Amino acid sequence: MNDNEKFDDTQLQDENDTRDVTDSNSNDNQENNDNNEYEDVCYICRRPESKAGKMIKIPNNICICADCMQKTFDSMNHSGFPMGDFSNMTGMPNISLVNLSDIQNMNSVPKSQRLKKKKPKEEKKTAPVLDIKSIPAPHKIKASLDEYVVGQEKAKKVMAVAVYNHYKRISCDNLDGVEIEKSNMLMIGPTGSGKTYMVKTLAKLLDVPLAIADATSLTEAGYIGDDIESVVSKLLAAADNDVERAEHGIIFIDEIDKIAKKKNTNQRDVSGESVQQGMLKLLEGAEIEVPVGANSKNAMVPMVTVNTKDILFICGGAFPDLEEIIKERLNKHSSMGFQADLKDKYDKEENLLHEVAVEDIRKYGMIPEFLGRLPVIFALDALTEDMLVKILEEPKNAIIKQYKKLLAMDEVKLEFEPEALRAIARKAKKKDVGARALRAIIEDFMLDIMYEIPKDDNIGVVTITEDYIENKGGPVITMRGCMELEDKATPKEESVIS
Fold it and tell me: Where residue 186 falls among pLDDT bands split at 50, 70, 90?
């Protein structure tokens, strides 16, 4: 090997070493930037820097607040520990200090339990948390909902206006003494009518944090179950632990009818009326202590104060048997005489929930204080057979489009006859569980097709007929050769799936 080759090898080694150092420095800078974005958390009490004050950093990147450090020294003094000889302990026989570098991951705090640092006041003025111009107008919100949700015109209009007004309320000032109050919503609709689906679609359209919570798991403080504040904790997680952004978010509480007052019970109602009473301060607006990254305050996680004054709450529930209470109120008048109403006048009315009144919901089991904090009450339409047919094929992510895409990956075209779609809607209507029945029915008759089609590469088109839906025949299978001769002769048709 000559001197030039040695020089080239040495230069190449130096370049590799320099590249490794640069990569290491970039990784360190990335980690430092992430750490600068989030607050330090005390390893002992798990309080963030905004609550505990300036942190004391010890080796291995462990942070301890001044209170915990003082308590540690106090306990060592009271236990008779010779603090004066603390510096000379390394020279004492049979005694050695703990090497913190030997303890792995003891300072690891999950990012889900770390709070983002608050922005300085000057930065807040130049870059507001929420810009009203970024929120689309109500007609644009409704037009976007129309692409995914079939029907429910009134519900979509109410939600679009309420959300838009909510963010106008946040962005306006109160210098003229006029303070706009919050318009929380109560959404009532039969199961499968699209309550949760509408809120999830709304979350995709708006660039605001939205959390979906379930009221069935909520219990009074001190009992097994999720604390009431856990719904705000989910919103904080959706906002990436940014308190300022979370305070302008939306919370949807599903199955709100499950916290109605229990009737004829001799035990304490820890998951009913007590939960309603505990939610009053959330709906009205108050500063509450929220656990970060956990559902319970008893978990060893940081606590942060969140103001719910500017958080919009949307509550939804099916309220089964509420129609009977509405019928009872509407049939209070005597059914005797020539012009009297019949008692069975409302028995076949599908959209009876549109006649709901506050007194009906109160009789169902919701306390007046809770209903008073939900001023906007509206009901969703029951799904008709025509609406079910539209749900099958019109939305952007319709069920039929999903299966067409699945078979298109096998280079097979899937078609549905109009009579077949009507037959599916009829079956779903009989199940009385709303749009959820559609997928169950389609999964049933598409099972054999999805199993058999990949066996034969010559299959080009599968047509679903009404007879196949009604279990009177099979689907129509068109082979690829027949597709090429379609203009010259009648395509060869055969049914290979029973």
Answer: very high
121 domain-assigned: no
Indicate the pLDDT class of residue 337, thresholds 50, 70 and 90. Answer: low
The Cα–Cα gap between 68 and 330 comes to 65
Q: What is residue 86's three-state secondary structure?
A: helix
| Among the ranges given (178-182, 375-379, 392-396), the one the predictor scored with the smallest mean pLDDT | 178-182
pLDDT band at 100 (very low <50, low <70, confident <90, very high): very low
Q: For residue 154, what are the contacts with CB-CB under 8 A and spacing of at least 6?
A: 378, 381
> Residue 199 in contact with residue 316, Cβ under 8 Å?
yes
Specify the range with the lowest mean pLDDT, choosing from 125-129, 135-139, 179-183: 125-129
The stretch 263-292 carries a mean pLDDT of 83
426 burial (CB, 10 Å; 0-12 / 13-18 / 19+) is middle
In a domain? residue 341 = yes
Joined together, the tokens standing for residue 104 give 């792995």
Q: How many domains does the chain have?
A: 3
Identify the residue whose tokens are 């300072």: 107
Check whether residue 208 and residue 268 sit in a common domain.
yes
Are 257 and 303 within one domain?
Answer: yes
Residue environment code for 113-140, b if the CB has 16+ CB neighbours within 10 A, otherwise e: bbbbeeeeeeeeeeeeebeeeebbebee
Any idea what the Cα angle at residue 229 is, between residues 224 and 235, rounded to 5°? 125
Supply the Cα-derived Rg of the chain in whole angstroms.
Answer: 32
Residue identified by tokens 């309550």 is 195
Is 348 within a domain? yes
The pLDDT confidence band at residue 459, using thresholds 50, 70 and 90, is: confident
Residues 6+ apart with CB under 8 A from 45: 52, 65, 67, 68
Range of the domain at 425: 385-494
CATH number of the domain at 337, please: 3.40.50.300
For residues 83-101, give the mean pLDDT: 49
